[in-house]
Design a protein that fits this description.
The chain is an alpha/beta fold and 198 residues long. It contains eight helices and five strands; from the N terminus they run E-H-E-H-H-H-E-H-E-H-H-E-H.
Length: 198
């Protein structure tokens, strides 16, 4: 499978970066073709400009810095997001990537009277998330309603193939997590990546 891994953490020495490496290395070892987008490392600009917003619904080409990211989305059969959950959702860097890269006409059709939005990324048939949380699971799930999970596994999934499969791996209470729990989560990530069909 052609897997696009999107990583969003500013620190290359972070546990999140280690999770990304495990996901990429395991996928390659299983025979998948993998591309990595490391948003912070490449200095991606997550801010949508006024001019971008004005032309968002036009049929014109996307901004030049976004074009390679769109090409990667169109290449991929599976998307794996690796990021920390901050304030109950994705980092602003990743949210800005979604705002700027999930371009109308490329990832979805713009709805019109009598014609609802339709998916345009029908090449994508897998979406996975690997994330960490400072919050305990009950606060994130029952009190906050899991907004980050719904954004990706429900919202972005609507732009992909009809039977797109999903997975979600989250390590809660990261700030107080000991080494055995972290190691167990790394093993869980590797095991889940190994289950992706080539």
């Amino acid at each position: 499978m052609r897997l696009l891994v999107i990583h969003a953490h500013p620190l290359p020495e972070s546990f999140n970066a280690a999770l990304c490496k495990v996901a990429v290395d395991t996928a390659r070892a299983q025979g998948h073709e993998v591309r990595l987008i490391d948003l912070y490392a490449e200095g991606f600009n997550p801010v949508m400009s006024a001019e971008e917003r004005r032309t968002y619904h036009d049929d014109g080409p996307p901004p030049p810095d976004v074009a390679p990211h769109i090409a990667a989305l169109q290449w991929a059969e599976g998307l794996i997001f690796v990021y920390p959950t901050w304030w109950y959702a994705q980092p602003a860097m990743l949210k800005g990537w979604m705002d700027r890269v999930w371009w109308p006409g490329v990832t979805f059709t713009v709805p019109s009277p009598g014609a609802p939005m339709r998916p345009a990324l029908t090449n994508v048939r897998l979406i996975g998330v690997i994330t960490t949380f400072g919050a305990p699971w009950w606060l994130w799930t029952f009190v906050m309603g899991a907004p980050g999970r719904r954004m990706i596994l429900r919202g972005l999934r609507l732009c992909t193939a009809k039977r797109t499969k999903t997975f979600w791996l989250g390590l809660h209470e990261m700030d107080t997590c000991d080494a055995p729990r972290r190691n167990a989560f790394v093993a869980r990530v590797a095991a889940r990546i190994r289950r992706i069909a080539v």
